[in-house]
Amino acid sequence: MNKIHKEPTSAEIKRLNKLKETIEHHRYNYHVLNKEEISAEALDSLKKELADIERRYPELISPDSPSQRVAGKPLSEFRKVPHRVAQWSFNDAFDEDEILEFDARVKRFLKSENENVSDLSYTCELKIDGLKVVLTYENGYLITAATRGDGKIGEDVTENVKTIESVPLRLKSPEDVIVEGEVWMGKDDLKKLNELRRKREEPIFANPRNAAAGGIRQLDPAVARSRNLDTFIYDLAASIKKIPPTQFDELEYLRVLGFKVNPHFALCGNIDEVVEYWKKWMKKAPSQDYMIDGVVVKVNEKKYQDALGYTGKAPRFGIAIKFPAEEATTIVEDITLQVGRTGVLTPVAHLRPVAVAGSTISRATLHNEDEIKRLDVRVGDTVVIRKAGDVIPDIVKVIPEMRTGKEEEFVWPVRVEACGGDGGIERIPGEAAWRCKDQNSTEQQKRKLHYFVSKRAMNIDGLGPKIIDLLLKNNIISSASDIYELEKGDFSGLERFADKSISNIIDSINKSRHTTFERLVTALSIPQVGEETARELARKFKNIEALRDASPEELENIEGIGPIVARSVHFWFSKKPNRELLSKLLKHLTIEPSRTEGVASGSLSGKVFVLTGTLSGMSREEAKQAVLMRGGDVTGSVSSNTDFVVAGDNPGSKLDKAKKLSVRVIDETEFLKILK
Q1: Which segments of 32-117 does DSSP mark as H helices, in order?
Q2: Where do the annotations place NAD(+) binding (predicted)?
Q3: Which tens digit of pLDDT belongs to each residue from 2-24?
Q4: Which of 435, 437, 430, 432 is nearest to 369 (CA)?
Q5: DSSP string covering 44-58, please?
Q6: Fold (CATH) for 442-514+537-585
Q7: 75: pLDDT confidence band, cut at 50, 70 and 90?
Q8: Beta carbons within 8 Å of 484's beta carbon, 6+ residues apart
Q9: Any known ligand binding at 89?
Q10: CB 94 within 8 A of CB 301
Q11: Is residue 298 marked as binding?
C-alpha cells in the first residue's frame, strides 16, 4: 500500500524561500566580501533547517538551493572536603574591547594604590574545558584531591585522581603545597569511549568534559582509570616555602615539582600582545586534542597581584577571555513574564527547541524591557541564540531578513496575574526592570520560600518546592518562620508522607537551626543581595541586629557595596513586616560566626588576620599562605571581626584603625610564635 504524500503548506514554502534567500545573502558576505554578520554556527543552523524541510518535501529542492552547493554541590556519596584556600572564579571577557578595559582597570587600581606600573606584564594560559581539582601535598606526598564544589567545600575524589598517570603521587622534593588544575579527556579518547558505549547500547557523552567529570565522580576508581584521563596544573595556591615572584615563574616551578603544565603559556609585555595571543589560539584551539574554551590572563607580577587583591566574587588581577560561544538559530514562539522572589518581572523567550552547546534549548532570558528594545525582538522572529558553558542561554541577534511581516512586537501588560491583588506592575525608578506593585503576591511568597529552604540559603534538605507548595496550599505554613514550628502531626493527612520521610524533614529543619550570618541574610530574599553580598555584609557586621539597624551611609562604606545595594538593604530592614519576620526567625535560630563555615581544621581555624607594613623575615604573600595553610583567614581591611593585625615596618592607617576598634596588634616575632 502506497503512503499518502503530504503536501507542503504555503507557510512552509514561504519559510523555505526565506531560508534560501537569507543563507545566500550571508554566504556571499562571508565568502566573497569577507564580512561576517552572523556566526558560522548560526549560518549552519539555518542550513540545517533548510535541509530538514527539503528532506520532508524533496520536490521543493531546486538547483539553486544552498543545500546543493559544496561550500568551502558535593555528591552525598563522597566525603566533603573543606578547602584550605578559597576557590575563586574569574570574571569573563568576550571581546577585544573588554580585554582592553581589563587592562585599563588594572592600571587605574594600581595607580590609586601608588604603584608604579612601568614593569607590568601579563601571563596568558589556555583555559582548558575540564573539571577543576585541588591537590594537597604534605611532605611531598599526595594527601587529598578534591573537586571545586561550591568554592568552600568540595568532594573527596582522591582515589579516582590517583588513577591519572600525570598526577604525581610524590613530588620531586618534599614540599607542603596546595595546587589547582584541570582534569580533562582527549577528543580521540572520547571518540573511542563513545564507540564502545554505542556497542553496549549505553548513552554517549556529548563532550569530553562530561566524560571526564563523570569518570571522576564515580565511586569505582576503575571507571576513572578506564577513561585515560589527564591533567594540566596551573596554580600554586599555597606553599610553606617562598612563592615565586611572578606567575610565569610559578608555572615553571610547578613543572620542576613534577606536575604536568600546559606548554603553551606565554609572557606578554602589554595588553596588545594578550589580544594577539587570544586571537591566535581562537584559531589554533580546535587542532588540540583537549577542549579549549578561552584564555586565562593574569597580572604576571605577584606584588601587583597582592595589591590588586579580590572583589567579593573574583580576583582583580585576572580574567578569563572566552572564545566565541556556540550559537544556533531558532524561532521565538512566545514571550512571557516570570515573577521572581523579589517581585522583579523577567521576560522569557519561549523558543522552538534547538540543540546548542550539547543541550536542547527551548527558553532564553530577555533580561528586561531595554534589552527587548535593543534587540528589537518580536514573537515570530528568527533569532541567534548563544549558550556558553552553564550560562543561561541568551538571544544575541535578530535576523531581520527572515521576517515575513507577521511578527508581533511585545507589549508590556498593565497587569500580571501572578503578581496577585489587582496584578499591577511598575517600572523600578532608575532601572530597566519592572516589578509587581504588590510585593506579597502568592507566587512571590512561594518563590521566596523555595529559595529560603534551598542549598544556597538555609539548606533544609528534603523540603523542596513541591512540599513547600503543598504546605502552603493546606494553610500549614504562611511564612519562613512557620517552617521552624512544624511538627510531625502537621503532615498527617497529607498524601505520600511516610513516617520516615517526615522524620527526615524535621531532622533537616532542626539541623538548619544552627546557621551562619551570611546564610540567613542570603535566605531573606533582600533585593540586590546574593551570596557574595551577604558574605561581605557578614564580614562587616558582628551580628544580624547590627545589620538591621545600619544606616545607608554605613552600608555604602563597605567595599563592594554600592549605593543601590545599600538603599535596598536599608529599605528592606525598615519595613515592619520584614523586621517582624526576622524577630520570629531569630527565636528559632542560633547564628554562628560565618567565617568558621567550611574552614579546614588547623591551629588558626576561624581566626582572621590583617597584614600591614613590611615584614623582615617573609613577604606578605608568604605570611598570608602560612595563615591559610593553618586554617586561618586573611582579609585586606580591619573590622570588628578581625582577631589579629600583624604590624611590620611602616604599617600605615590599618594600625590606627586596629587601635580604634581595640583589635589585638602583634609584631612579627609574636606572629611567628603563633604560627609555630
Answers
A1: 40-56, 96-112
A2: 89-90, 125, 148, 182, 298, 322
A3: 455 578 999 999 999 999 999 88
A4: 432
A5: HHHHHHHHHHHHH-G
A6: DNA polymerase; domain 1 (1.10.150)
A7: very low
A8: 509, 513, 585, 588, 589
A9: yes
A10: no
A11: yes
